[in-house]
Specification:
There is one protein chain. The protein is built from ten helices and no strands. It is globular and about 60 Å long. Helix content is 66%, strand content 0%. The termini are far apart. The protein has two domains: 58 residues, Arc Repressor Mutant, subunit A (Orthogonal Bundle), CATH 1.10.10.60; 135 residues, Tetracycline Repressor, domain 2 (Orthogonal Bundle), CATH 1.10.357. It has 223 residues and is mostly helical. 30% of the residues are buried.
């Protein structure tokens, strides 16, 4: 490789280190003081860079705090690409999520120190939750593209990839919300399995002997 290539690689590694350092300090400071108790300038100072450098990597402190979450979406999508081609789309998505949760090297949320505390905070901080939602949507769009490629379809015309991802991501979101409310930091895999198990015919059709579907016909009132 020529000198130009080596220089480009060095710059790339330096940029990655700077981004990771900013994200790490943002994470630590926000957990220590709360989102509103930390400024962008303080994060930059802790990382030994200036405010302008911070802005090259992140538009705001919320994105810096949640930078690792974007990597989690990438990990799930890598696992999704690796699933056997014969698996139905929703099954593949479910198992990709479980593969991520079972991989300690990927540091899934329940194994990452203090990440549970951050998501608890996100439930109470609208701007942090909004940033988390934006990252999640980006990951879901990539998941749709992955499933469309597996099915050899155009996702703009065939809704199966988008519907499968919406269902799977909704199950993951429900599991996350229940996990945060539970106060049990180690229990995320349990909630994820339960949420995906809930994606069954019971949600689409009444159970045998269950209550009749709601009727909009007004019943007469006995006189």
């Amino acid at each position: 490789m020529d000198a130009t290539g080596n220089g480009s690689e060095r710059r790339g590694r330096k940029a990655r280190r700077t981004r990771d350092t900013l994200a790490r300090h943002a994470f630590e400071l926000v957990l220590e003081r709360g989102l509103r108790g930390v400024t962008v300038e303080e994060i930059a100072q802790a990382a030994d860079v200036d405010r302008r450098t911070f802005s090259r990597y992140f538009p705001n402190k919320e994105c810096a705090v949640l930078d690792a979450v974007r990597g989690d979406g990438d990990r799930i999508n890598r696992a999704l690409r690796a699933r056997p081609a014969a698996e139905p789309p929703l099954t593949a998505y479910r198992r990709a999520v479980l593969d991520w949760l079972d991989d300690p090297e990927a540091e899934p949320w329940h194994l990452r120190p203090r990440f549970f505390d951050l998501l608890v905070m996100a439930e109470e901080e609208p701007t942090l939750y909004a940033a988390f939602h934006h990252i999640r949507v980006d990951a879901q769009e990539e998941s749709v593209a992955v499933l469309a490629a597996r099915l050899a379809v155009d996702a703009r015309q065939d809704l199966r990839p988008a519907v499968a991802v919406a269902a799977g991501a909704g199950a993951l979101l429900a599991a996350q919300a229940a996990w945060v409310r539970s106060g049990r930091p180690a229990a995320l895999p349990e909630f994820v399995v339960h949420a995906f198990d809930a994606l069954s015919a019971d949600l689409l059709e009444p159970r045998q002997g269950g209550p009749a579907p709601h009727s909009t016909t007004e019943e007469s009132t006995p006189s």
